[in-house]
Amino acid sequence: MKIIKLIPYLLLFISISCFAQQPATINISLNNKIGDMYPVWAWFGHDEPNYTYMKDGRKLLGELAALSPVPVHMRVHNLLTSGDGTAALKWGSTNAYTEDATGNPVYNWHLVDSIFDTYIKLGMKPYAQIGFMPEALSTHPKPYRHYWKPGDNYDDVYTGWAYPPKDYNKWEELVYQWVKHCVQRYGQTEVESWYWEVWNEPNIGYWKGTMQEFFKLYDYAAHGVKRALPTAHVGGPEVAGGSSPGGMKFLNAFIKHCIADTNYATGKIGSPIDVISFHAKGQPTLVNSQVRMNMAPQIRDIREGFKIVASYPETKNTPIVIGESDPEGCAACGMATNPSNAYRNGTMYSSYTAASVAREYQLADSLGVNFMGSVSWSFEFENQPWFYGFRDLATNGVDKPVLNVFRMLGMMKGKRLKVSGSQMYPLKTVADSSIRGTHTDIGAVAAVDKKEMTVLLWNYHDDDMQDTGKTVKIRIERLPPTFIKLTQYRIDNAHSNAYEVWKKMGSPQNPTATQVKELEKAGQLQKFGKPVTLMAKSGLSGATVQLPRQGVIFLKFSW
C-alpha cells in the first residue's frame, strides 16, 4: 500500500473547475463527542405484508438485515386484514380472524406466522402493528377489499377495514390470542424485545370512527397485549403529522388520555403507553416541470412531535418512533401518475435521506428526547415495472441508490461527533424554509469508535438539478499520530447507481439474465478508488473531495 504524508489534507479527487469556486469546509474534532451513534434509521415499513415472504421481498429483507449492526425493525399494515393473502398495491391480508356460522371466533395465524417467521429467521424484529379491522368484526364491512391503483382517488382505499369493531371484547380477545400465540411460537424473551403499536394514522381516513372511539380501540388492544404478556411493550397512536388534519392535536389528546382518562377496557385511570409514535412527511412539487422537494414540513412534524412528548413529565423519557418519515406520503404512487415523485430512482432520494436523517439526530439532541427509531416507509413492490418511480429501496430485486445510504449508515458506530460546515444549512432554516438558497446543503454526520472514524457527507438541494458539485475540504482534529487508512465510498451517477446503468442499457423492461446480474452489481455500494494511507501529524489530517450535487460520499478512517 502506498504511503502518503500529507499536511493537512489528502487530495482524493479534484477537477480543474473546482479552482474557480470557493470550497466548502467541514470541521470535525474527535474530542467533541455529542452522543451515541444509535441506529435510529434501522426501521422500515410498507403497506403490503404479503410481499414479505415473496421472492424479492425475502431478498431485500436479507440485505436490510445484513447492512445493520442491530436488528432491523419492520412495520407493516394489514396484519389482521381479512382476505386470501393476495398481494396488491396498498393492500394485503392474513385472514387471522373470521367467525363461524354462530359468531364464534376462528383464529388462523398461518400467514401472520409466515411474515414474522421471515423476520425472526433473519434476526429482525417486528414493530408489530395491530390492525386493520377484520371483516367479521367491522361495523361497516362492505365494501371491504379495495382494488386501488396509481392514479385512482386515494380515498378509495378506506373501506370496511377502517371502521371500529362491532364488539370491543372480541377485538381485545383477538389481540390477546395473537400475542399469546407469538409468545408460544417465539418465546417470551423474544416477544419482550418487540414493540406493538395500535393502528395507523387515526386522524385521517385510516380510521372511520371518532377520536374517543380510537382511544377505546387502543385501550382494549393494549389490555389484550398486556393480558397475554404483562412485560410486552405497546403504544401509538401513529398519527399523520402536523401537516395533516389535527395531527398534533390528536397526539396531545392521546397522551392525555393515556395519562389521566378512564380506561375503556379496565375502568381504571390511564392506559399503558410504552412507545409514542407519529408520522412526518415532506411535500415535493413540480416547478416548470422540474421536481422541487420540501423537507421543511417533515422536519417541523418531527420537531413538534418531539416537543409534545417532552412536555409531559410522564412521557418525556418514553421511547419515540417516527412511524413513517419520508419525503412525501404515498409510496405506491409512481412518477407516471405523480410526476413530483420522479426523485425516487436516482441520487436525489439518496442525498435527501442523508440530509434529513442528520436533522432527525439534531432535533433529538436539541430537545433531549428518547428517540428510538425512524421508519422509512419504503420497501419493494413485487412484479412491477422496472424503475417505475415507486418509493422503494429496490426494483425487481435490484437495489436503488437510496439503499446505499443505509449501507453507509450501517458502517457508522461508536459516538457521534459535532460537525460544523461552512455550507451546511442551520436546522432552523431547514424547518422554516427547507433547502432552497443560492447554495446547496453540504453537510456531514461523523462518528468515532475505538480505532475508526466515519464521515457521511452529502451535497443536497431541493431543486432536482445536477452538476459537478463542489470542492469540500474535511478537516479532522485530534487523530492519533499514526498511519491512517482511508477508504472512500460514493453514491453518484457513476457509482452505486443501478438506475444510471439501466438507462444506458436502453431502459429495458425485460432485461436479460446477464443484464440483471450487471444491474445487481451496480446496485451495491461501491468504493471510489483504492484505499490510501496517510500520516496524521500533530493529530491533524483530512481530505479534499469533489462532491457532485445530489451525491453522497462515505469516508472511513481506520488506524
TrEMBL record:
<protein>
    <submittedName>
        <fullName>Beta-xylosidase</fullName>
    </submittedName>
</protein>
<dbReference type="InterPro" id="IPR051923">
    <property type="entry name" value="Glycosyl_Hydrolase_39"/>
</dbReference>
<feature type="domain" description="Glycosyl hydrolases family 39 N-terminal catalytic">
    <location>
        <begin position="95"/>
        <end position="523"/>
    </location>
</feature>
<feature type="signal peptide">
    <location>
        <begin position="1"/>
        <end position="20"/>
    </location>
</feature>
<keyword id="KW-0326">Glycosidase</keyword>
<comment type="similarity">
    <text>Belongs to the glycosyl hydrolase 39 family.</text>
</comment>
<keyword id="KW-0732">Signal</keyword>
<keyword id="KW-0378">Hydrolase</keyword>
<dbReference type="Pfam" id="PF01229">
    <property type="entry name" value="Glyco_hydro_39"/>
</dbReference>
<dbReference type="GO" id="GO:0004553">
    <property type="term" value="F:hydrolase activity, hydrolyzing O-glycosyl compounds"/>
</dbReference>
<feature type="active site" description="Proton donor">
    <location>
        <position position="201"/>
    </location>
</feature>
<dbReference type="InterPro" id="IPR049166">
    <property type="entry name" value="GH39_cat"/>
</dbReference>
<dbReference type="InterPro" id="IPR000514">
    <property type="entry name" value="Glyco_hydro_39"/>
</dbReference>
<dbReference type="GO" id="GO:0005975">
    <property type="term" value="P:carbohydrate metabolic process"/>
</dbReference>
<dbReference type="InterPro" id="IPR017853">
    <property type="entry name" value="GH"/>
</dbReference>
